[in-house]
């Protein structure tokens, strides 16, 4: 009886949480025309988004367009959406590291593509497309890290704010250059930056288009740690080691932890409490909990 009740709660909760996640930020009611912008973005090819899902539950998502400092072409934006959907369905996933090829992070939108979609309709549709995708990325039930090597510029800086944490290598830089492009962030970077560093610091970084080096990022709370190495593979190994401190344990529990924190961060208190109760119901009396009750670990 108890087991079947637990299973019913688990299934209902899982469906509700999944449903919440699948409701996009923008839809036709907002004038968003996804098929139109996907067709347009398809015209701007180049580069790729590579995803490696490892047995330890850590995914490595690589922005791969090093000739253009990993600038996002149209097809890379489409591939990012595909990879986020794949990660939403990766039940064993616990963590995610986002990095760029060629020892640099990302220099934002491909300016060649930006020129061709500079009209209002295409620009707004691209903005909503990327906000939908980065919001889904942010809400993945995985602990995500942006590994910033080299430059994270414009939309690249915005992408870092869609991750739970940022790690920077010596000499790397985050810079919201939008002002110099006659823009403001369009991929949700401003809204997320305010929540990370506060409105005062966000206003200074955006209005000054300030270069944020690792030391300034640490002071602002924008970066968790400055890694020791600036070498590409060594810094990735450091990032894996850093993330593994937080992803050790059953995937069901790590994913539940991210879900309750996402609820606490985004929902009004009473909704967050109800979501926490629902997520609690998916782990209480579950395999990991029952095994721990047998083991009786000492938390010294
Ligand atoms: C809504 C759009 C907005 C957003 O998404 O919010 C944006 O992101 S708009 C784009 C904002 N990004 C930029 O303006 C970055 C422009 N690039 C640079 O400032 C510099 O390239 C750099 C990133 C600081 C690196 O400088 P450096 O190390 O000196 O390399 P190069 O400048 O020589 O770059 C190598 C090569 O790559 C090309 N490149 C770099 N960034 C882009 C880009 N965003 N789009 C297209 N191409 C880019 C650069 O032109 C060089 O190519 P070649 O000239 O052919 O050698």
From TrEMBL:
Subcellular location: Cytoplasm, Cytosol
Keyword rRNA processing carried by entry: no
Source organism superkingdom: Eukaryota
GO biological process, one term: fatty acid beta-oxidation
InterPro entries: ClpP/crotonase-like_dom_sf, Enoyl-CoA_hyd/isom_CS, Enoyl-CoA_hydra/iso
CDD domains: crotonase-like
Enzyme superclass (EC): lyase
Presence of the UniProt keyword Lyase in the record: yes
UniProt-listed Pfam families: ECH_1
GO MF annotations, alphabetized: methyl/ethyl malonyl-CoA decarboxylase activity
Keywords assigned by UniProt, alphabetized: Cytoplasm, Lyase
Catalytic activity of the protein: (2R)-ethylmalonyl-CoA + H(+) = butanoyl-CoA + CO2; (2S)-ethylmalonyl-CoA + H(+) = butanoyl-CoA + CO2; (S)-methylmalonyl-CoA + H(+) = propanoyl-CoA + CO2
Assigned EC number: 4.1.1.94
Role played: Decarboxylates ethylmalonyl-CoA, a potentially toxic metabolite, to form butyryl-CoA, suggesting it might be involved in metabolite proofreading. Acts preferentially on (S)-ethylmalonyl-CoA but also has some activity on the (R)-isomer. Also has methylmalonyl-CoA decarboxylase activity at lower level.
Listed PANTHER family: ENOYL-COA HYDRATASE-RELATED, ETHYLMALONYL-COA DECARBOXYLASE
Similarity-based family: Belongs to the enoyl-CoA hydratase/isomerase family.
Protein name: Ethylmalonyl-CoA decarboxylase
Species for this entry: Anser cygnoides
Phylogenetic lineage: Eukaryota, Metazoa, Chordata, Craniata, Vertebrata
């Amino acid at each position: 009886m108890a087991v079947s009740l637990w299973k019913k709660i688990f299934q209902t909760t899982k469906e509700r949480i999944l449903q919440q996640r699948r409701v996009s930020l923008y839809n036709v009611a907002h004038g968003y025309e996804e098929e139109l912008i996907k067709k347009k973005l398809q015209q701007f090819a180049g580069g790729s988004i590579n995803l490696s899902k490892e047995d330890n539950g850590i995914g490595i998502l690589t922005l791969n367009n090093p000739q253009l400092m990993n600038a996002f072409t149209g097809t890379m934006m489409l591939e990012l959406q595909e990879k986020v959907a794949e990660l939403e369905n990766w039940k064993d996933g616990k963590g995610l590291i986002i990095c760029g090829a060629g020892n640099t992070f990302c220099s934002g939108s491909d300016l060649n593509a930006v020129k061709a979609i500079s009209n209002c309709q295409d620009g707004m549709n691209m903005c909503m497309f990327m906000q939908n995708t980065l919001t889904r990325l942010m809400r993945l039930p995985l602990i995500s890290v942006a590994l910033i090597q080299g430059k994270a510029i414009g939309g690249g800086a915005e992408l870092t704010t869609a991750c739970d944490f940022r790690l920077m290598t010596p000499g790397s830089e985050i810079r919201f250059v939008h002002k110099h492009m006659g823009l403001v962030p369009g991929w949700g970077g401003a809204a997320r930056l305010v929540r990370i560093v506060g409105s005062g610091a966000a206003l200074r970084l955006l209005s000054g288009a300030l270069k944020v080096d690792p030391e300034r990022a640490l002071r602002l709370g924008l970066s968790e740690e400055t890694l020791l190495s600036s070498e590409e593979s060594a810094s990735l190994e450091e990032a894996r080691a850093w993330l593994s401190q937080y992803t050790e344990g059953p995937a069901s529990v790590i994913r539940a932890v991210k879900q309750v924190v996402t609820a606490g961060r985004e929902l009004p208190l009473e909704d967050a409490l109800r979501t926490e109760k629902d997520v609690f119901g998916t782990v209480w009396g579950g395999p990991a909990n029952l095994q721990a009750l047998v083991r009786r670990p000492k938390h010294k």
